[in-house]
Amino acid sequence: MRQRNLSLVLHAVAAHGPLSRAEVAGRIGLTRAAVSTLVDELTRGGLLVELGRTRPGTVGRPGSALALSEQGPAGLGAEIGVDHLAVCAVDLRGRVRARAERAATNRDSAPGRVLRRLAELVRRVEADAKREGLRPAGLAVAVPGLVARDAATVVRAPNLGWQDVDLSRWLPGEAAGPAVWTGLSVDNEANFGALAELWLGGAESPRDFVHVSAEIGIGGAVVLNGELLRGIRGFAGELGHVPVRAEGHPCACGGRGCLEQYAGEEAVLRAAGMTAGEGIPRLRARAADGDAAVLRALRGAGSALGAALAGVVNLLDPQAVVLGGALAELSPWLLPATERELARRLAARPYSEIVVSTLGRDGPLLGAAHSVVQGVLNDPMRAMRGNSA
Amino acid sequence: MRQRNLSLVLHAVAAHGPLSRAEVAGRIGLTRAAVSTLVDELTRGGLLVELGRTRPGTVGRPGSALALSEQGPAGLGAEIGVDHLAVCAVDLRGRVRARAERAATNRDSAPGRVLRRLAELVRRVEADAKREGLRPAGLAVAVPGLVARDAATVVRAPNLGWQDVDLSRWLPGEAAGPAVWTGLSVDNEANFGALAELWLGGAESPRDFVHVSAEIGIGGAVVLNGELLRGIRGFAGELGHVPVRAEGHPCACGGRGCLEQYAGEEAVLRAAGMTAGEGIPRLRARAADGDAAVLRALRGAGSALGAALAGVVNLLDPQAVVLGGALAELSPWLLPATERELARRLAARPYSEIVVSTLGRDGPLLGAAHSVVQGVLNDPMRAMRGNSA
């Protein structure tokens, strides 16, 4: 019960802070006396701070405003992309306080090599975060592939060439400092991207949506009533492998005619007559210049996306579809074709709006770091025990 | 709290009964004294009965076994099919106690005519149920179409030709006796079929599955963690309109290449060179006789179903896919092609098993009636108030 109430206080301040003790009490339905006791514990534990007119030596003045600590636990997020690695540290208020990244050629690479490089970046960001007065409380890693539910095993990441890679074996505690390794979690990048949308999108963002993003592959995630749908094995949301052409191009997943083969980065570059190395920025520049082949390729990708989304809307009837990652960057050229296709296939009924994420390519990285912060807000006693140890 | 505890007692007896008071107390974690008070109230209210060694005049002997009443509230379920109407009454133990049906040509029919005929059947079943000593506690109607969430409005039922039909306007209380009309609920037939699977499938049935059924159309429903996914408008589960051929046959929904156009009853009959009137029993007989055209048509339907399910499995990663309705009856000929298609498209990863429902065509009707029974188990105070009134 105490655990739950401590968490309620933190979530109230996270969502609506700064708040006075009385305002917290009003929001969570506890007495002001009970809230004061909880706030004192959270302040001593380094999770809450008092803002404003506090005098030295006074703790817990009822009138002063409470905020989450900027010097408390931090979430470390990491992203293993096909062509880059990134790590960041986010404080309890959700601000990025340290960040490092490097270009990398991770396609068909040995997990050990990639994960040693990732561990270097993690150590660098961890050191920077500590210099800022933060205490890393855990590491969450976003990967482009299927991740086993409640485990740190990448079951299959075709674009990395990985199969059954247990990240906890490759990212040992000794290598990067024990503080980080109190918690290692691994999830699909699209899942973290969707959670970032949920947590960082503000009060008006949908709580019931399908998130679609693209880097090399097409990622997807389903959020229902504010909860990520994981699926029985952890594999839910694989929108990139929904078939859109019955006997279409073979796909790295083993299937045929998957959406990824028509709206993934490589497919679009190929359709535009460009090489894989030219990448999205170049594609975007040419689209902005009105290059006919590029515009045609993007229209084709948008239509394929619309056909897949027609299936998704029929199946889930979500509040919204959110486009993230490269799909957000390309949305001015993709979206008209996608919307036309949806309108054509769902003419007879109302359906979900399509919205474009404002998080861009950072969604998965931020979502990973924020998942650690959410863990602290959900289980503050554990974070405070870590502090006193 | 009392409301919740009364419901816990009923659900424990429903799932595991007959149970003694002590066994109920053990299962729901309340004291035996508290359970005795609740049981007395439920017995007085006509929802529970004592079995076995009770003597006249003694109520609530602690040692006797408790069961749900066979003389208490009943759920009335109704089904509006394209070619039939059916109504049944189910007691609290889940047994069908009265039933009536008639063939009907409901395609492109005026709602008023269909619903007047349905009301006649409801009155007949209600009278039969009362003769059995039951008290109808509400009516739930299954329809082949989109139903607005938390309302009794059929937004669109293309095979009936209905649009925005509010059933509560057409099924007024006076027409069929006030007892029934304490509660009218309307839902998509596939939703009720999936709920029947969940409630009647036994302890080992999956709690996380996609349900696919066919009559004239293809219906679908998604159950996640024991809860029906309704979607933001109530339209979730429309598997029949997931596109399986990008530029395939036009569909009554306004789309193109929808699964229903390849695996729905009419599509299969047409592909087998049969007329729509010949129906599933004849199709099955010819399949059993080894008719090559029929077997080919069923293989084609099975493949189309497999392609749609590959998308569903990628998106939801459910524990199981359950085939119901005509798809269950045809499963010996459909399933090999469906499984081949799934295996081909999901070769690289584990995925959900396909199971065949044992409820056959009765799923939606039984699910509708049971939804009323579930309402009584969830809100027994309301049902008991109805009794004393």
TrEMBL record, chains A, B:
Gene3D superfamilies listed in its UniProt record: 3.30.420.40, Winged helix-like DNA-binding domain superfamily/Winged helix DNA-binding domain
InterPro entries recorded: ATPase_NBD, HTH_MarR-typ, ROK, WH-like_DNA-bd_sf, WH_DNA-bd_sf
Domain of life of the source: Bacteria
Annotated Pfam families: MarR_2, ROK
Recorded coiled-coil stretches: none
Family matches, as CDD domains: ASKHA_ATPase_ROK_BsXylR-like (cd24076)
HTH marR-type domain residues: 8-49
SUPFAM superfamilies reported in the protein's UniProt record: Actin-like ATPase domain, Winged helix' DNA-binding domain
Similarity annotation: Belongs to the ROK (NagC/XylR) family.
Protein name: ROK family protein
The organism of origin for this protein: Streptomyces pathocidini
